[in-house]
């Protein structure tokens, strides 16, 4: 055999027998390394070089989107938000700028950095707190920079950084996503990262963030074991299909909304009254109803006012093999029975009797006796297996131990690079969370 041909064959066999993480460096590995990016027992540190020029660009963009300067609750004289901008909120998605990222001995260049969020971003911006919610997209600038083509962070294209806004325990997002997954509901992986950022005046410790997996990238296929189709981030109560309320996260070039249209049609079909068995058959053909009922069991037990049934947001819909799945998201305001402006929002009760047909995905489903019985059984299983003082106490103690070194001694995060008024607030919040969980356990037990 020709020597060159033999050499080529050996190379092909060698590559074929190895994982691409063994061939590509962490900056370009195609395989998502969940264990490394989302460790369960430690806090990783990441450093972000923005610089003054980029910080100036971010401020100019945000002043246009909010009509407010950083650190000001008052509108800029003569500046009005864009037409259609919601009151006291951030209009649209902020711009991307180029940043350099360091983690350990590795560097990622020309990474896309942009602010994200709504209440957390708006509140942080007005308060002048540099601990802002943001997203990193590692290949955002690849069209202009071929040298970073398909750049990844240990296999991940995007990561979302949440500053634990409104959650001094730093536990809610991580805790609730784990509880959902334990009970057969897809939810993002979450890990703790200490974040250090240079805004142009030198590196500053912005403290502990919760790094959250992007829903549509690896998560769905990894957790479902099935091929992913359309993924939506809706702002809809599911009464009717309005395309602007179903933001596509993928397949944007294909104007195909047939799956979510089918779901809404089946849910709101008059068959629900005239032929209930057929209604359930058609609904289950397009939507994983039992998975949604398990979601309700967990969500209602822990208490989460910032979710569907109260507000029409903080969820994704994902299609796998023609069936739509409910994916909860943005959970930092969970483990609370009321909140919002002046505490005017209330989480759903365990029996959900107060929910009207304005929220058909809850009202119509739990009106069915068999579905409601499944929901009650899911609540019972949840509190027996996970949500009881013994199991939850052990879980919280584990994460209290992991976080404690970052809120003790010198060099801890502090305003204006933290939302914490005092590091002691973390322990106070964790103790309050334990007390709350014990109270909710009793409520669910009585139910």
From TrEMBL:
Source superkingdom: Bacteria
Keywords assigned: Capsid protein, Virion
Cross-referenced InterPro entries: Spore_coat_CotH_CotH2/3/7
Pfam families per the UniProt record, alphabetical: CotH
Protein name, UniProt field: Spore coat protein CotH
Biological source species: Runella defluvii
């Amino acid at each position: 055999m020709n020597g060159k041909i033999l050499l080529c064959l050996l190379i092909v066999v060698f590559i074929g027998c190895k994982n691409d993480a063994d061939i590509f460096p962490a900056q370009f590995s195609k395989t998502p390394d969940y264990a490394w990016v989302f460790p369960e027992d430690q806090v990783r540190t990441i450093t972000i070089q923005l610089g003054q020029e980029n910080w100036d660009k971010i401020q100019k963009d945000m002043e246009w989107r909010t009509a407010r300067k950083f650190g000001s609750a008052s509108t800029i004289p003569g500046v009005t938000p864009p037409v259609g901008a919601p009151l006291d909120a951030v209009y649209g998605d902020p711009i991307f700028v180029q940043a350099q990222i360091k983690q350990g001995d590795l560097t990622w260049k020309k990474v896309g950095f942009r602010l994200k969020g709504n209440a957390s971003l708006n509140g942080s911006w007005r308060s002048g707190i540099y601990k802002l919610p943001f997203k990193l997209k590692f290949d955002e600038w690849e069209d202009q920079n071929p040298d970073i083509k398909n750049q990844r962070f240990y296999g991940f294209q995007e990561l979302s950084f949440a500053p634990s806004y409104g959650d001094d325990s730093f536990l809610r997002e991580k805790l609730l996503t784990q509880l959902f997954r334990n009970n057969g509901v897809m939810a993002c992986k979450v890990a703790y990262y200490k974040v250090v950022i240079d805004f142009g005046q030198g590196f500053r410790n912005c403290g502990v963030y919760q790094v959250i997996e992007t829903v549509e990238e690896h998560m769905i296929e990894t957790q479902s074991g099935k091929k992913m189709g359309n993924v939506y981030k809706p702002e809809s109560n599911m009464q009717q299909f309005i395309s602007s309320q179903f933001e596509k996260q993928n397949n944007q070039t294909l104007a195909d909304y047939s799956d979510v249209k089918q779901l809404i049609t089946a849910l709101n079909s008059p068959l629900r009254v005239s032929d209930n068995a057929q209604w359930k058959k058609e609904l289950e053909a397009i939507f994983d109803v039992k998975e949604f009922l398990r979601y309700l069991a967990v969500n209602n037990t822990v208490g989460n006012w910032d979710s569907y049934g109260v507000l029409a947001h903080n969820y994704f819909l994902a299609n796998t093999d023609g069936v739509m799945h409910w994916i909860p998201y943005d959970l930092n305001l969970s483990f609370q029975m009321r909140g919002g402006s002046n505490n005017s929002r209330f989480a759903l009760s365990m029996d959900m009797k107060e929910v009207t047909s304005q929220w058909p995905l809850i009202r119509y489903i739990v009106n069915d006796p068999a579905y409601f019985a499944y929901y009650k059984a899911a609540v019972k299983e949840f509190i027996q297996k996970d949500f009881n003082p013994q199991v939850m106490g052990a879980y919280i103690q584990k994460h209290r131990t992991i976080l404690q070194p970052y809120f003790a001694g010198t060099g801890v995060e502090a305003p204006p690079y933290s939302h914490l008024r005092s590091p002691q607030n973390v322990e106070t919040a964790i103790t309050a969370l334990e007390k709350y969980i014990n109270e909710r356990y009793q409520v669910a037990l009585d139910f």
